[in-house]
Design a protein that fits this description.
With about 500 residues, the chain is an alpha+beta fold. The chain has 2 domains: about 5-275, Orthogonal Bundle (2-methylcitrate dehydratase PrpD); about 285-415, 2-methylcitrate dehydratase PrpD (60s Ribosomal Protein L30, Chain: A, 2-Layer Sandwich), CATH 3.30.1330. The protein has helices at about 5-15, 20-40, 45-60, 75-90, 100-115, 120-140, 160-175, 180-190, 200-205, 215-235, 250, 260-265, 285-300, 320-325, 330-335, 340-345, 360, 365-370, 430-440, 450-465, 470-490, and strands spanning about 65, 70-75, 145-150, 150-155, 305-315, 375, 390, 390-395, 400-405, 405-415. Helix 1 (about 5-15) packs across helix 7, helix 5 (about 100-115) packs antiparallel against helix 6 (about 120-140) and helix 16 packs across helix 18. It is globular and about 70 Å long. Belongs to the PrpD family.
Length: about 500
């Protein structure tokens, strides 16, 4: 009998680009462009500068591109820096197991694509396959809470989403490194046993966030790259890490698992089509109230100085102290503050690194608006288990009540902008491209200097044509864009 581990490992290495449906290829391109933009948007943040300086200190054979830098580094170090950068602003895509792993999927694959001189098709295939592996592992381990008879009865002491970032990187890396089934099995064992600790509960209780949230996406990407390279050299790992009484789900701390969710529709139901994109650089759980808030601002032409109070109605995940914080002290903490997100949106701050620039964080208008925001539970999402399908969320309601002009304007959003499951919320190619432009220093209209605009447009065009191009064409356009950003003095 083929084990769960071997079945998933065989999928990772035997799937070819020709096996991918056209919508999956297109989504891999969209994810690639969005993730690159998120990384470039973070290069002038404190955390981003640390990542770049750290990789510079490491040195290494210049095999791979370090986004935003004029230096190349080893595949392992480049994967680290780029994936960490992509997660810094919390603007990267979110899969409905409440996990970000597009960052490690994209940049572990890109680093090895450069090392082994793969094609654009190889890179896109690795992104689709790696994303599927991460998504399936997350769905397999289920939600970070305990559910009985359809109701939430408590929160897990261990488990959580961090390990899925590593598994996505492992899947992408084993695919693009062209391992055979035996080597991939060992790569799974090597990487799975070196996954990050389950720190979700510690993260949830911390108002002041560490720079890597609940796991450093860079290390997760690095684990994927190292696992594939070690296995290709002949190193071994646990052969049955997903199987048996002491399988990964158990020693990682998840109270349960769902083997059906792990393998159902493998190779036909592509999970990358279920990822969500972020129009705003903050936690995805804030996006449902933000969607309702944006709709009301637009519908009623509300100005921030007219708003005397905003009551945010949030789902159970977004009610912990960090989400209620009105005066976040740094970028990472502000990314989880309902009050800061609403203040930035109300004042028209471009949705990118400028949300967390010192000029925004210290703006007295922003601080005053944050004081007027309170957070309460959203009644229709009180039982979050009702909104789950196969270990994933397809929508969790959130809303706002805006007090202005002597009345109350109210709205609730079951789906947030960027959710792919409704036509009204699905992020279009144009929206992804516009977001990419803002991340690299253009304004919302795509203006910001001819050179920068041309360089950004070239990267977007290359990504969308990557199935017909070598990976070197992508990295050359990235280098040109990075130079243009530096010349333009783009800052967070």
């Amino acid at each position: 009998m083929t084990t769960l581990t071997q079945t998933l490992a065989d999928f990772a290495v035997q799937t070819r680009f020709e096996d991918l449906p056209q919508p999956v290829v297109h989504e891999a391109k969209r994810l690639l462009l969005d993730t690159i933009g998120c990384a470039l948007g973070a290069i002038e943040t404190t955390s981003g500068k640390i990542a770049l300086e750290y990789v510079s200190m490491l040195g290494g054979t210049p095999h791979a591109t370090v986004v935003g830098s004029d230096r190349r580094s080893s595949a392992r170090a480049a994967a680290y820096a780029n994936a960490r950068l992509a997660n810094v602003l919390d603007a990267d895509d979110t899969f409905p197991t409440s996990t970000h792993f597009g960052n490690a999927t994209v940049f572990s694959a890109l680093a090895l694509a450069e090392l082994d001189k793969r094609s654009g098709r190889d890179l896109l295939g690795a992104i689709a396959v790696g994303f599927d592996v991460g998504a399936r592992i997350g769905s397999w381990m289920g939600a970070p809470m305990q559910i009985e008879n359809g109701k939430v009865i408590g929160w897990n002491e261990l488990g959580g989403p961090a390990a899925t970032i590593t598994w996505a990187a492992i899947g992408a890396s084993t695919h693009i490194a062209r391992l055979d089934g035996r080597q991939a099995n060992h790569a799974f064992g090597i990487g799975g046993s070196n996954s990050p600790q389950p720190t979700l509960r510690k993260w949830a209780e911390s108002i002041e966030q560490p720079m890597y949230k609940y796991a450093d996406a860079g290390w997760c990407a690095e684990i994927g790259v190292s696992s594939a390279l070690l296995a290709r050299l002949g190193s071994t790992g646990f052969k049955h890490i997903l199987d048996g009484e002491n399988a990964f789900w158990k020693f990682y701390g998840s109270p349960t698992h769902d083997d059906h969710a792990l393998l159902a529709g493998l190779g036909t139901d592509w999970q990358i089509l279920n990822t969500t994109y972020k129009p705003w650089p903050c936690c995805r759980w804030i996006h449902h109230p933000l969607t309702a808030f944006a709709q009301l601002l637009d519908q009623h032409a509300l100005r921030p100085d007219e708003i005397t109070r905003v009551v945010v109605r949030a789902n159970p995940f977004a009610l912990t102290p960090i989400f209620r914080e009105q005066h976040p002290r740094d970028l990472l903490s502000a990314e989880f503050s309902h009050a800061h997100a609403l203040a930035a949106l109300a004042h028209g701050i471009p949705a990118g690194p400028r949300w967390y620039a010192a000029a925004t964080m210290d703006d007295p208008r922003i601080a005053a608006f944050r004081e007027r925001v309170t957070v309460v539970p959203e009644p229709s999402s009180s039982n979050i288990a009702e909104w789950m399908t196969g270990g994933q969320w397809r929508g969790v309601p959130g809303g706002v009540d805006i007090h202005a002009r002597g009345t109350i304007f109210s709205a609730t959003a079951d789906n947030a902008i960027g959710d792919p499951w409704t036509g009204a919320t699905r992020f279009t190619d144009e929206q992804i491209t516009r977001k990419f432009g803002v991340m690299v220093g253009l304004d919302v209209n795509g203006d910001g200097g001819d050179e920068l605009r041309r360089a950004a447009r070239d990267v977007a065009d290359v990504v969308m044509s990557l199935d017909e191009l070598p990976v070197e064409r992508l990295t050359a356009s990235l280098d040109a864009l990075s130079r243009s950003m530096r010349a333009q003095g783009v800052e967070a």
